[in-house]
Design goal:
The radius of gyration is 13 Å and the shape is globular. The protein has helices spanning about 5-25, 50-60, 85-100; strands at about 40-45, 65, 75-80. Helix content is about 50%, strand content about 10%. Strands 1-3-2 form a three-stranded antiparallel sheet, covered by helices on one side. α1 runs parallel beside α3. It is mostly helical and about 100 residues long.
């Protein structure tokens, strides 16, 4: 990876983790800080997040990937990609937070 790309993704990772904190503080989601990749894998209390991801898409206009896509053992998670333009990332996470709060 180029240094510039690494810096941008590191900054986006920090922004995403900071902006999602209100949901973590309220127990809506939890996660482990990613060590690689370009996404947060957010755990919910739902057994399958497919309907949740559809609801967020339809109501908040943000696309997320349900965990079941990656296997039944992670069906209670959803994936938020932070490899986006910083302004677009911020707007998307603001919409997600508003959806839950």
């Amino acid at each position: 990876l180029s240094r510039k790309f690494y810096r941008v993704m590191s900054a986006n990772r920090r922004v995403a983790m900071k902006m999602i904190e209100p949901l973590v503080e309220r127990g809506i989601v939890s996660y482990a800080a990613p060590q690689g990749g370009f996404y947060l894998f957010l755990k919910t209390d739902q057994q399958d997040t497919t309907d949740l991801c559809w609801s967020i898409l339809n109501n908040a206009r943000v696309g997320l990937v349900p965990g079941v896509t990656f296997g039944k053992s992670v069906a209670s998670f959803f994936r938020l990609c932070f490899a986006r333009d910083a302004d677009l990332l911020r707007e998307g996470i603001e919409r997600i937070v508003r959806y839950f709060l």
